[in-house]
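Inputs:
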Amino acid sequence: MLTYIIRRILYAIPIVIGVNLLTAVLFFYVNTPDDMARKILGEKNVTAAQVDNWKRDHGYNLPVFFNTPEEGTAKLTETIFFKKSLPLLWFDFGRSDRNNIDIGGEIKTRMWPSLAISLPMFTLGLVLDLFIAMMLAYYRGTYLDLWGVVLAVVMMSVSTLFYIIGGQFLLGKVLKLFPISGFDTGIDSVKFLVLPVVIGVLSSLGIGVRFYRTVFLEEINKDYIRTARAKGLGEGAVLFKHALKNAMIPILTNVVVSIPFLFYGSLIMERFFAIPGLGNFTIDAIQAQDFAIVRSMVYLGSILYIVGLILTDISYTLVDPRVRFE
Amino acid sequence: MPVILATDLIIFFLVGAVLYFVIASRKVGTLKSVRRELGKNRLALVCMVFLAFYVLVALLDSVRYRDAVIDDDGASAVSEDGGVIYSPEALSLLDRALSGMRTRTEKTYSAPFATHSYAKESMEGADGTIVRDYPPLKYPRAHWLGTDRVGNDVLFTALKGVRTGVVIGAGTTIVIIPFAIFFGVVAGFYGGVIDDIVQYIYTTLSSIPGVLLIVAFMLLFGSSGYQGGLISEVHVIWRAFVLNDRLFWLCVILGITSWTDLCRLIRGETLKLRELEYVQASRAFGIGRLSIIYRHIVPNVMHLVLITFVLQFSGLVLAEAILSYIGIGVGPEMGSWGNMINTARLELSREPVVWWNLLAAFAAMFALVLPANIFGDAVRDALDPRLRYR
């Protein structure tokens, strides 16, 4: 098991390096430090001296990959790539371009508000998705199933934006159940979190229910289910004991990958509900064109995805003994 | 003088491809069965009518030309070197057909079919006194869905969003199809190192969060392109063609982030196909690899392309709205439902509530995405019943 995990992590290393190189090319070659300086200093009336100053202050005055005039290893180390991009590998995110804030520290503090909204959204959503999907699979072929699927397709055809705007209007403004947006720490945060969590769960319910329903239906048509029925098990036991266990692989494929992303937050939700999480941080950076933050977030997102893939593979071996550590 | 945007070509290609399928489905055997399956599904046919309407509107909005500038004396204006001067406004057939809606603007908000404005104003009465009342509209009962904050007709704005929605939904997949087929087939057919490289490329690309990759690309490339509105001579090449089209870049970038799924599917299918008897037989007959790929592999992965195309459509339309909402989608001058939502998002908190803008954007999107979802499922079921449970 341990060797399997280690090998799996070793496989991930080239991908991490690839992502690092790609972001470096994107953010330093395609969009050169000169472009960055001009965007931040204001497009008009910028002198070359101002650009040079800005580059020197922020450490962008070096060549990107290869510093020819230097001696020995300094040829490689005295470069933007080595100073700015490579430290990402050990999670040293550096400082932002605009306000010179410590990005790593900011990520650490903003991660928790993101988690506070995404964790309940994720667990509640998953439980509801699975429960409703199993109900529909249990009553397959009836009108309940038919209308459930119709409702799911209708729900997945509505943009998230409308769930948010409509939910804020209906639950926040008309019924006055919850504050429309905002955030607080400690126990007070609960009243701010209910609305985004409810809306988040609702907006993804359609896709989830439909996906898991097909997963269960596929299992239900297999031979071992017929055997279970033939030996006299009730439909409930068949569904919950046999079908659910065997449906774990597609469920895990879908679920485990997104667990690391819970720290990452959601761009749209956090923006609408003014939650000071990482999603909001990213959108602020996008609108301020702070490339150091965007680059860090791109890199962090990729790492979380790769971690999710590794976790998925490991979780397979836990639920299904047929999966070997090869 | 015609003006052709890069995204217009996507619409033309889409219409051409649809026409090709309609005609070919009368002759080609496999397509015939798809046609029969779809014909049995009445719901899918209804959805097809909706989709056809949207594509038609998009097509009308993609054929555009510039009028010559008319001088005061009635003749067309001529520049110093003798060429005719064209107006920078490239109006599409849709603009021209609905010119009433386009030009009849009010001062500000008005409700659907209203005769009077939304807000009270101080006006001079008939006897010279100042009264505060709702001013009558310039064009009472002319705006079926009301007008927005700057007085534009909401129905017209919603219709202008159709082209953007269709371009994003269809164009993204169209742009990536050649790459996905090439890399998928090559990786699956040749295997070995080539397969490893292709897999490495798409794993790396897919591990970068899609939204952020799009954001990064749009921040870097998107700012210089044609954003809608007036055509500036800078963007026009070969007198009539606009390649640097922001919407087109958005398609390409969305494509880069979404091609991995299709590529993976095609690779898997090719792995299966290359072991089949008829491929081995052609090999035994000494047919070259390239012609095996061309004759036996590519035609047999095309159904995956079609399925991916219809299934991705609705998700991409929804994604466009979100990107435009964040401010990295299409330009503000180009009609889009995301922009409509963005400008209208605070209108529900007005008193009285301005609901028609959001409702129009909602209805326009819903009436495209829901049929696209249902039709996509129907096409998938007709083409490949084995994929039904994916």
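Chain B is about 60% helix and 5% strand. Flag for discussion at group meeting.
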